[in-house]
């Protein structure tokens, strides 16, 4: 018998390579655009020039290509960037007119008029805004990114006289929300005149999770489920049935006034003081509890177990070499998952906002008090990057609740790139996400994110089925504005 042996494929000439970690590979199929809306016309040349300089000198990993070599995903970083090896795909579309001059264009979220400004409201997300955040050449799958052999990072700028849209797109293998915020914060600092030598960068070869990638006996992430083949089939069947029962869905922005949130928090704190309790809750606990009480509270007799997950930024956890935090800026994924102990859906009707907020806070405190458990999770994920962990048993329901506020997108200031003599400060007025995913569709339904905060309110985005939204609206807890 003739045996053949294929030699490993060597790294391409002129490229430095870094293996993707288990944290990068888990969300690899999701293509994410972080859309920024700035109420000024910006100078596209200055935007491109400063971003190119920043990546070349401070964040070369952001200029990497994604490749699948010898059966493993990796970042391939040009040893020298230049016209033949660009660090970013940067595209521009110019409109020599005001965005708001054409009433057929979708209303921007910051222009919405809410019926009761002191109370939360919903507004449908206008899909038409997507065209201003992605170019026609922007790949929409990890396969297209790999086959293009171009930088994983795409930045598309759409210019109007009164508004600039900036869409920052990559496979989730390249960035998480905090990583994107790290790059964009450094970019705006450079735009506004900070000396580049004063900006702390990310070394091209940093691998903070390398020590967790070895063999481990840990095969299960805390709060997640390892299902056998039969259980997996039943799990999928349940969600397919749920999709058939509510086949259409849409995204909604949730506008929560800060005054409303702080008043609800004050009521809870006053109640705890009255009970002489030493427990406490934060604004994020109250916001999350309020949202899920609003979203699930109309299902008064539903005993379905509900599993809630929070992504956790582990850069600031003392988990790395020498039990230190990750001190270098890091743009790639550094997210673990915190599982809130499940409750039956009907509990969100029966329990008070105080009880739900405390349930969340207790889970967070227990998670933070168990660093060894988190290290085990990291080892499990890094050693088994392609293993599927299920968020609930068959027949359960789950949701992920992401917090983009920690990335600071709403505080980004592009004033240094404003065209002409405009004096208006060019801060980000709104953060507009666009998701494209090859993930099974049922994994996205029912989840969402806290996008940003402005002076008056906190904004969330949520994806739910049409019948689900109808149930929420019939409950009368929050009104809906139909955004054109």
Could you characterize the architecture of this molecule?
By secondary structure, the protein is α+β, with helices and mostly antiparallel strands. It has a domain at 212-405 and 441-481: Chloramphenicol Acetyltransferase (2-Layer Sandwich). It has 11 helices and 16 strands. Strands 11-10-12-14-15-9-6-16 form an 8-stranded mixed sheet. The protein starts with 14 loop residues before the first strand and ends with a strand. InterPro entries: CAT-like_dom_sf, Plant_Fungal_Acyltransferase. GO terms for molecular function: acyltransferase activity, transferring groups other than amino-acyl groups.
CATH superfamily of the domain at 212-405 and 441-481: Chloramphenicol acetyltransferase-like domain
- Quaternary structure of the protein: single chain
CATH class of the domain at 212-405 and 441-481: Alpha Beta
Following the backbone from N to C, one meets helices and strands in this order, namely EHEHEEEEHEEHHEHHEEHHHEEEEHE
- What class do helices, strands and sheet pairing give? alpha+beta
Are there runs of 5+ residues with pLDDT below 50, and where?
none
- Strand tally is 16
InterPro entries: CAT-like_dom_sf, Plant_Fungal_Acyltransferase
GO molecular function: acyltransferase activity, transferring groups other than amino-acyl groups
